[in-house]
Amino acid sequence: MAEDETEEARGVSDALKRVEEIDDPVQRAVAISEVLRDYEKRAPRLRDLRREAVLAMRAEGISYRKIAARLGVSLGAVQNIERGHGSAWGTKSRTKPAEE
């Protein structure tokens, strides 16, 4: 993964940590609610973007193990992502993109 992308992810993680560290419990709860609402809206698109990357790597003939290592996830997670599931077994099956 390129350093810039890793830095972006670290920035998101740092921002979430700052939310957890808000002293006032009510303000913290409000901030957490905002984060969770935003995540709920963004999660499907984020999963789609990750799946597109997995499908592109598979189309290039890259093995599941190498994809897992590049993405920092398990082999099973890569296989589930390719199938249109999230990375966990409990994730509901997602609609596959239309064939071109």
Topology:
Elements: H1 3-20, H2 25-59, H3 64-71, H4 75-83
Structure overview:
The chain has 100 residues and is an all-alpha fold. It has one domain. Helix content is 70%, strand content 0%. It has 4 helices and no strands. The longest helix is centred in the middle third of the chain and has 35 residues. The chain is elongated. The two termini are 29 Å apart. The mean pLDDT is 87.
Provide keyphrases for this structure.
mainly alpha
In short:
The protein is built from four helices and no strands. The chain is mainly α and 100 residues long.
How would a textbook summarize the main sheet?
Answer: none
Tell me the number of structural domains.
1
Q: Can you tell me the residue ranges where pLDDT is under 50 for at least 5 consecutive residues? A: none
The secondary-structure class comes to mainly alpha
Tally of contiguous helical segments:
4
Q: Give the overall shape, derived from the CA principal axes.
A: elongated
Q: How many DSSP E strands?
A: 0
Distance between the amino and carboxyl termini: 29 Å
Give the helices and strands as they follow along the chain: HHHH
The overall average pLDDT, rounded, is 87
Which percent bin holds the helix content? over 70%
Estimated radius of gyration: 16 Å
Query: Into which percentage range does the β-strand content fall?
Result: under 5%
